[in-house]
Amino acid sequence: MNDRERPPRRSTHHVTAIGANAAAVAVNFGVVSTGPNAHINSWILPPQAWGRPDEVNVAPGTHNLTTPRPLVGRTTELARLHRSLTNGPARGDVHVIHGLGGVGKSALALHYARAHTAEGRFAWWIRAHDEETVESDLAALTYRVNPALAQARMTPRHAAEWARNWLQSNRDWLLVFDDVADPGLIEDSVGPLTTGRHLITSRRASGWAVAASIHFLDVLAPEPARELLRRCSPDGSDDVIAELAADLGHLPLAVEQAAAYLEETRTPVARYLARLRATPDRMLRAGAHDTDPQDTVAGVWRITEEAVAARSPFAARLAHLLAWYAPLPIPREVVYTVADDQAEVDEALGVLAAYNMVRLTATHVEMHRLVQVVGRMLDDGERHGPDVLTDAHASAVRALAMALPASSTLYNLPNLRQWPWWLSVLPHIDHLVGTSVPVGARVDVARLLLAAEKFRSLRATSNHAAERVQQAVTLLAAELGADHVEVLAARLNLGWAYEAAGDLGRAEDVYTALVSDHERVLGPRHEATLTARLMLQTVHLRLDKTDNSNDLAVDCERFLGPEHELTVFARYHHMTSTITADGVSAAALDEARRNTHDLVTLLGEDNPLSYFTRASFGVLQAIAGDPAGGIGLLEEVIDDCRRACGRDDEPWLAFLRGLLAMALFFQKEWHRARELLDEVLPRLLSAYSVTDPDVLLLRYLHCMAMFAADDLERTHAAATELLDDTVGVFPRDHFVVMWSRLLLALCELGEFHVRQARELASEVHADMERVFGSHDENTAAARKVLRMANALCAIRHPIRWLTGRL
C-alpha cells in the first residue's frame, strides 16, 4: 500500500485502560511504568560506543597477561618458538604447543607473549577450556579496547563478535588460546582472523589445521629440574635431589608442586622423597596450602582422563592397564593382546596419544611415570574404585603373559634375534611382579617370573634367579597343586637357575628329586621324565661324575623316536661324555660333527644352544689335532653371534671368546690365548659365579697361558686363588685341581722354593698315578716336575753358599 492509498490519520485518539494500575497511552515518546515496584533504568551511551571497530585504537603494548614466574630450563624452547613465530607469515599464523599436562606449555606461551607486548604490540590471553570462557575472555577484550561498550549491556556472544571484528580490522596482534580441550572450540576465532598471530596451548597432539605449526614440549632436562628443587631446599644433597627429580619424571608442574611443599613445610628433601615413594597418591595431591586441587599433578591428569573417557571408554580402560607397567617403552604386541581387534587397540592408543597420555612409535608405547601413578590412584570415583584398579592390574599381568613367545621345552630358548624384545619387556615384568600379586593373576605372575629368570640365567645377568624361580614354584603349587605338570616344569627351571649360577650341588639335588617325582606322577616313559633325567645327566657331566648316559639315549629313542629333540640331546650328551673319558678319536669327532649338525637343525641357527654347540665342536677339533680348523669355526661362531644379538657386551659372547682362547691354547699360541683371557675373564667373573665349572676351566687355562709366557708371579697368585675356589666344586683328583697344583709346584721351582715345590710335586704325582696310571702323559709330566725339584734340592745349599760368598 503506498502513501496515497493510506487512510488519513485521525486527528483525535480515543484509548481505554481497564484494571488496577492500568495505563492507557495514545501517543508516547517516553516510558510508561505502573505498579508499586515499578522502576525505570535508562542510560545514555557516549559517542565512542557507536564507533566502528576499525575506528577504535588502543595504547601500544595493551594486554591482559599475568606476571610470569622465572622460566627455568626452557631457553632453547623459547628461542625456537620465537624464531618460528617471527619467521612465519605475519598474518593468520597459527602455532600449537602441545605436551603432557603440567609440562609447562602455558608458562612458555606466557613468556613469549610478554616478549611480544614488550615490543609495543597487542596481546590477549584467552582461557579455552570451553565455549563460555572463550566468549567471556573475548568480551573482556571488547571492554578493554572500547570501555564505553561496557555500558551497552551486550550479551557475551555479541561482545565476542565485536572483538573479532576489531581484531580483523587491526594487525600485528597475538591471541593466546590456553589449554584448548577441543580444536573445534576456537575454530570461529582462529579461522576467520587472519591479520595477526595465534598461539595455542593444548594437551591435544592432533586435530589441528594442516597449516598450523606444531611444537611438542617435552619434560625438563635433569639439571634444570634439580635446580628448581635446589632453590627451595639448598641443604639437600645433590644425590637425593637428583633422585627426587627423576622420581618426579622431570615434569615441571610436579617439580614446582614439590618445591612449594618443601618451601612451605620445611620438609627435608630425603623425607619428601621417602613419602613420595611410600604414598605417591597423597604427595601428588599435596601442594602449598593455597594450591587449587585442580592445579596439582593429580588434578590436572584427572581432567585429561575425563576427556579421554568421554571420547573412548576403551581408551580410558587401556590407560589404566598401561599404568601398571614400568615407565619405559613397551612393545605394542603386548598391548594387542588386550582385544581381539588390533585396529580397536590402535585407535584407542591414538586417542591416548592425541591427549599426550602416551607416546607412540611404530613398535612401542610409553606412558610418563607420573601419569601412571595417577592412573593407579585409589579414590571414590567411578573410574578409580578398588575393583577397577585390581582388574586393570590383573589385565596388565595377563596381557604380558599372553605376549610371551611359546616355550615348549626347557631347551626352547629365545633366539638371539629375539633378545632386544626380551630386553624391552624385562623391566615391565619386574615392575609387575614387584607389586602385590593381583587376585586371579597368580599363575600368570609365576609364568612371567619363570620366563624372565630363564632369559636372565641364559645371559648370566641375574643374581636372584633361583630365589625368584622358587617364588614362581610356590605360586603355581598354591594354585595348581604340587604334582601339576606345570609345577614340575617350574622346578626344572629352578634346577637350571642353580646350574646357571654355578651351584651344581643344589642343581643336582633338585634334578635328583625331580626324576623321582616325575617317575611317580607321569611314569618313566613320559617326555618330562626323560627331560629331568637329561638335566641331571648334564650336571653330572659338568661335575665329571660317571653316568650311564647311553641308557638315557636308548630310552629316549625307544619311547620318543630317533628324531625327537630329547633323543638328539641325549645322543649329544652321550657323545660328550665319551670324549671326556676316552679323548677325541677320529670316529668320535665324526660323531660329534653329526650330532652338532642334528642339534643345530633341530633348534635353529639362532638358538643360543646352537651357537654353543658349534663352538664346542670347534674346541673338539682343536683337541683332536686340528686347532686351525677349530679356531676358524670359533671365530665364525662369534661373528655370527655378535651380528645376531647386535651387542658386544653380552657375557654369553665373552664365554664363546673364552672357548676361542682354549682352542688357541691347543694351537700353542700362548700369547694370543693369554691376551684374550685377560680381556674376557673380568667380564665372565662379573657375570658368572667364580665357582662355575666352565669359568674355573677357563681360569685354569689362563694360568697355563701365563706360565707359558714366563709370568710366574701372576701364575702363582692366580693358581692359588683358583685352587681355593675349586674346593667343594671339583674333587681332589679332578684334572683342573691336579694341574693347578702342579703349576704351583713349577712356580715354586722358578722362585727357588725347592722344598715346597718337591712336596707339592710329590703329592700331585701320586694322585695322577692313581687316577691316570703310571704310563699316562699327565703322570709323566708330574714325574718330570718332581725330578726337577729333587735335582734342585740336591744343589740348593751349594748355591746358597756360593751366593753368600759372592
What do these coordinates show?
By secondary structure, the protein is mainly alpha-helical. Helices cover 61% and strands 4% of the residues. The strands form two sheets. It has a five-stranded parallel β-sheet with strand order 2-3-4-1-5. Strands 6-8-7 form a three-stranded antiparallel β-sheet. It is elongated and about 150 Å long.
Summarize the structure.
By secondary structure, the protein is mainly alpha-helical.
The gross shape turns out to be: elongated
Mean pLDDT across all amino acids: 83
Radius of gyration: 41 Å
Question: Portion of residues in helices?
Answer: 55-70%
In percent terms, what proportion of residues is strand? under 5%
Order of the strands making up the biggest sheet = 2-3-4-1-5
Low-pLDDT segments: 1-6, 796-806
Number of helices: 35
Say how many strands there are.
8
**Structural class of the secondary structure composition?**
mainly alpha
| Major sheet characteristics | 5 strands, parallel
Question: What is the terminal-to-terminal distance?
Answer: 152 Å
